[in-house]
Write a structure and sequence with these properties.
Elements lengths: L7 E6 L5 E3 L2 E3 L4 H11 L4 E6 L5 H14 L1
Parallel strand pairs: 1-4
Antiparallel strand pairs: 1-2, 2-3
Helix pairs in contact: 1-2
Length: 71
């Protein structure tokens, strides 16, 4: 297990392609809006992406791009 700072949220891409943030499933199209909303409420927050090795590559890339575009 990797340690993560308390003010960091983990965006997870699971092997079945589902994307989760805070025990909440997200569609790839929701990632940018959700991250932007969280950043407005918690300006100092950071995000990390954790992808299962067996996760579909497209889902991992889509999650990374959406997170990057959200800031």
């Amino acid at each position: 297990p990797t340690s993560v700072a308390v003010d960091t949220k983990i965006l997870q891409v699971h092997r079945d392609g589902t994307i989760w943030l805070d025990q909440r499933p997200l569609k790839a199209s929701e990632i940018g809006r959700v991250i932007a909303d969280i950043r407005r409420q918690q300006p100092g927050i950071t995000f990390a992406i954790r992808c299962d090795r067996a996760a579909p590559f497209e889902q991992a890339v889509e999650a990374m791009l959406a997170a990057k575009q959200a800031g």
